[in-house]
Amino acid sequence: MDTQQQQQQSAIQGAKVLMVGAGGIGCELLKTLALSGFHDIHIIDMDTIEVSNLNRQFLFRRSHVGQSKAKVARDAVLRFRPHINIRSYHANVKNPEFDVDFFKQFDVVLNGLDNLDARRHVNRLCLAADVPLVESGTTGFLGQVTVHVKGKTECYECQTKPTPKTYPVCTITSTPTKFVHCIVWAKELLFAKLFGDKNQDNDLNVRANKAASSSKETEDVFELAEDEDIEQYGRKIYDHVFGYNIEAALSNEETWKNRRRPRPIYSKDVLPESLSQKNGSTQNCSATSVDDSAMVSAMPLLGLKNPQELWGLTQNSLVFIEALKLFFAKRKKEIGHLTFDKDDQLAVEFVTAAANIRAESFGIPLHSLFEAKGIAGNIVHAVATTNAIVAGLIVIEAIKVLKKDADKYRMTYCLEHPSRKMLLMPVEPFEPNPSCYVCSKTPLVLEINTQKSKLRDLVDKIVKAKLGMNLPLIMHGASLLYEVGDDLDDIMVANYNANLEKSLSELPSPVINGSILTVEDLQQELSCKINVKHREEFDEEKEPEGMVLSGWTQSRATNGESASTSNNESAVEVTESSSGPEIASKKRKLSETQPENHKRETENVESEDDDDLMEIENPMTVSKKKKRVAYTFP
Amino acid sequence: MDGEELTEQETALYDRQIRVWGANAQRRLTKSHILVSGIKGTVAEFCKNIVLAGVGSVTLMDDSLVNEEALNANFLIPPDENAYRGKTVAEICCDSLKDFNPMVLVSVEKGDLSARSTEFFEKFDVVVIGYGSLATKKAVNEKCRKLSKRVAFYTVDCRDSCGEIFVDLQDYKYTKKKLEEKVECELNFPSYQEAVSVPWKPIPRRTAKLYFAMRVIEVFEENEGRKHGQCSLLDLPTVLEIKKKLCEANTVSESHVPDSLLERLITGTIEFPPACAIVGGILAQEVIKAVSGKGEPLKNFFYYDAQDGKGVMENISNSFTS
């Protein structure tokens, strides 16, 4: 072993690392860390093992289903590396015990997460604790690994990540054009209305109400009468949502001027008079006598086996009624508390059927249960190989971080098709974005109707959803408008709750055009300022939230070449707005950091070589890819 | 489409990957038979990946006994002497792999790969040679090419933090998606013998240096009768001598193959686990592509070097000279 290798080994052996996530990437990462000689690894994961994990999370076996991922992964790796220290935490990384002091004990943090929210949270804690972060993600054959070191490279949030797609309410309630709209309707509206919390606001009848009947009347449809037959009840719901509501919507001619008119569907036209004789479901379903409620299924009763098969309207209608009946027959206690879960078979069947019937009505192509489950559950496509590769890349970057080899840091992309011969493409990390609200404390701008929007809207739609704060505190000047925490007394809580229902301009310290709010999260040690601009009107289609948040103060025109990394198009903007000298310096920097032999090569062939351009173009082509990759794990 | 449906159990287990490559590809995978020899770190990673993916069967060949080096990067071997004493690497790895996915048939074949008859290879759809000698790679490749059925042939080699993959799919047809349309494509692969004898002069200068360096090491080990990785810094003068001869024969200057790279390859005999994971991952991806007939395959070399972080595909055939 030469001295360089010895240095590397001592850096590895002396390191204390934190892994967040013991899933697809996590299993591979823990294995590769252990093999590479890491001695002290802490691992956090709140999840338990599921069957669909076993195709890639190779540390888990069928007998482990239901157990903590972090713990089982630890035990499995200790079997081939018994003498290292692995500590597992079966917990949410957002829990308060994982505070800045907790993060400070580590030399590097390695993320193998599956959601934007947790990634942002860890990013902020790493910034606050000044611990380097190696971040990763995969979907199908695509993957990426990035390095985030405070002050040296951009933080995870320097380029705004797209938040999960939301759809305008009216597209979902009355004018769906894609299958996903039908899924959202079936899952968020119909399923929630029938089986979820009755007190939740629900837009299921919004459009119908406007068009016809009083809301009192439509509400009653969903009430199950004392001795009502479940099948009759199911048919009543069916006729109401697929028949009556569509008729009501059709009566509004204006809506259908430039749209295809939907077709109302009634159960009597699709299903036989009575199903009970034909299927005898109540007797039959005892055949599937499973105690685990997640295993109850309508499919076997109807002779449906293959989840990849496309069902026709009749089959979907049968599944709809059977699934609804099973909820009442087998899972009555849960009704009123259910939320959609992709691992809940009966819920997936019901949502698939409902979405398909609606799709049929609107002339949208139907989908199989397998496909519908993927859409409804936001399932990320995943294979073992990409996770293994990405885990290897994470360890390589982690070792560089430990050796403080700053000019060798790379972000690396795994591509499905080679780009300029490369399947694994390393790119120099970007510098911190000077207008990043997370690592550079640049004020944000919020356009909002200060008379109409309530503080609650600001907290839910901006502070939590957009800024990803966990335990927020909102101040206007010296006045505290809102905060969350265990240590608040009842009077304060009542005060804050009252504030939530007030419009911004009615608050004790009125927030109006020109006001500056301070929003903080004490756990994340993140504080940012929001400049409030009053605006009367918002476009319901394009700005469904009724407010617009932007990440920087100056307009692009005044900001010129100096890296105007804007919110949405940031990834592409960076290179497009870069000036000539910047590109040159980037290129120079790269060739300097290349190993000796490659450098010589580059100099020799300067003239013939258009491949040299590669280094310049990389960030751009790759940024686009990065966007695509990032987009799939909101 | 082809053959029986996937079972409910298979659909549940392979759910996430069926969403990547489709049910047809999964069906083809479950019917494929893979032969693997030389089970060090990178090949262990590869085996794990294809067993998880759900191939039909994996046959392992490696009669070597477990030693310190094998334990280092091969996570399929538990570090318990009582468990591995008297067993070959293939036998130990077989036990571990079976555990990863009970639906895959994993077995051990004893003996020397290069001594096997042509018929032996007919049972397989894919043959992977890990860390093989030049003679073995050539001989097995020729045998596979003689068969009437197409056997996908791969070699893989890792030294220091570098890796090489070679692919021979002979005449290969596949479908690829182009703007939502499926296009039929065809590729012709050179044999191993052809691919390593391409004259160096016409090969484009941006080609990975590892291609040339690996040829030098291969010839060195062949000439000296060394096993894979059986070399040290003491061998550098001999290696440089071979490099000089090869460069002269190919009428290229000696700077064509950097000495520093050769030095790395002969001294870095301990496998670097992250590089094993990366190269073993790429190899498995390629085997899955070839078995399922989906997606553009790698033609015909792949190189990874952790030092510059690039994973590059190189197409090296006699097309440069024609």
Protein described:
The complex is a heterodimer of chains A (about 625) and B (about 325). With about 625 residues, chain A is of the alpha/beta class. Chain A contains 25 helices and 14 strands. In chain A, the strands form 2 sheets. In chain A, strands 3-2-1-4-5-6-7-8 form an 8-stranded mixed beta sheet, with helices on both faces. In chain A, strands 11-10-12-13-9-14 form a 6-stranded mixed beta sheet. The radius of gyration of chain A is 28 Å and the shape is globular. Residues about 205-215, about 275-290 and about 550-634 of chain A have low confidence and may be disordered. Chain B is α/β, with parallel strands linked by helices. Chain B folds into 2 domains: about 10-195 and about 270-315, Rossmann fold (3-Layer(aba) Sandwich), CATH 3.40.50; about 195-265, no CATH class. Helices cover about 45% and strands about 20% of the residues of chain B. Chain B has 13 helices and 10 strands. Chain B has helices spanning about 10-15, 15-30, 40-55, 70-75, 80-85, 90-100, 120, 135-145, 190-195, 210-225, 235-250, 260-265, 275-290; strands at about 35, 55-60, 105-110, 125-130, 150-160, 160-170, 170-180, 180-190, 300-305, 310-315. Chain B has an 8-stranded mixed beta sheet with strand order 3-2-1-4-5-6-9-10, sandwiched between helices. In chain B, strands 7-8 form a two-stranded antiparallel sheet. Chain B is globular, with a radius of gyration of 20 Å. Chains A and B meet through α2, α18, β7, β8 and α24 of A and α1, α2, α3, α12 and α13 of B.
